[in-house]
Amino acid sequence: MSNESTKTRAIRPSDFEEKYLKGKVIDIGGGIDPVTTNSEVFDLEDGDAQHILQYREAASYDAVHSSHCLEHMKDVPAALKQWWDLVRTGGYMIIVVPHEDLYEQSMWPPIFNSDHKATFRINKQESWSSVSYDLYQLANELPNAEIIETVIHDQDYDYNIQGGKFNSTLRKIYKWNYSNSSIKKNIASTLYKLLYNKFYKHGNNNKGLPVDQTRWNALAQIQIIIKKTLHSSP
What we know:
Layout: H1 4-11, H2 16-20, E1 25-28, E2 40-42, E3 61-67, H3 76-85, E4 87-98, E5 119-121, E6 132-134, H4 135-140, E7 145-153, H5 168-176, H6 182-198, E8 221-228
Parallel strand pairs: 1-2, 1-3, 3-4, 5-6
Antiparallel strand pairs: 4-8, 7-8
Helix pairs in contact: 5-6
């Protein structure tokens, strides 16, 4: 996915940072696109986020944020529990993950990111995925957790082509985006957008690969906000 934190910040309410990202903030997997300018980024060079308590102290942050990182963990519930342990009482954890129906689109193993180890749904009993987690259920099982909000971000997502497929020409252009050549990438981006917007949306193509709409402006994700309280919810 491309610059998901930047795209997510653009659609969050103007008071989001003031409400949920005050004080000492850690952004797990923030890379070069951190959630705030003053947040501490924890990424691959800092250690294994699966075992983050080996590198950071428990109850040492007012807010823990992670966007598109949890799906890379080998043990999702264990990683989430450790991330939660970083949060001080009264603080928040904000998690953003791909929505399995919008992003993976019933394709597993994943074709858009081969490092994904899990898929996510929200308040949904059944899943097509053998490695699916209900994010609400995971959050609800955390100690002293109050779920403030769950929301699906699907801005600019075209449901008319959900699960759709590239024709052979678009598939070749799409693959250029993974080339090491910046010239090929620029050509691919321009041609893809032109053909996709002008022709593909309105066609009935049935060969090739599903469309990864997040490579451009679309969002295909779930966000959950959890507050750490003094007592567990009844």
